[in-house]
Here is the input.
Amino acid sequence: MSIEQTLLQRSNSKCELCGSESELKTYDIPPVDIADAEHAILACGNCRTQFDVGADLDANHWRCLNDSMWTPIPAVQVMAWRLLKRLDSEGWAQDLLDMLYLEEEVQTWAEAGVPTEADDTVTSKDSNGATLLAGDTVTLIKDLDVKGAGFTAKRGTVVKNISLTNNPEHIEGRVNGTRIVLLTKFLKKAN
Ligand SMILES: [Zn+2]
Here is the structure.
């Protein structure tokens, strides 16, 4: 029996996280050392598009974890834990995470997929993952409405001599003579 067939049987042909029956596919849980049914879940299209660590999460959709996290299947527990971890700015997700008890082995597996703090919070990175430092020059990769200043910073605008902030996703720079906060994901470091 193929992995997908095993999973279809295990899940009764439903997404193992939200119960949807649309666009079901096998998802191998990273890091993928072993490709087998024990290390994979069956997930619908909507769930799968949000698995990437960089993807935006639709918090309402993930209320489904309230049910699915109680599964006895370790692979599903691992995905539920990782998603709740990413949602931990939501009070309800934090509450669920507090209740979700994982066996030690499963806990280790769950944590293996989470980027370390150092990757995530200490350095500012541009849209390509290049590290940004104070004094760097960056280019905007999309038009940005500057709230409060009443203008649009055009794609391609060059911002010189940026400064870093406490938030790694925000830098400050001068555009049209106004000092504004820019999101690093909309920037490209100039060479
Ligand atoms: Zn789903």
Remarks:
- The chain is about 30% helix and 20% strand.
- Residues 79 and 110 are 7 Å apart (CA to CA).
- The pocket of zinc ion is lined by residues 15, 17-18, 20, 43-44, 46-47 (CB under 6 Å).
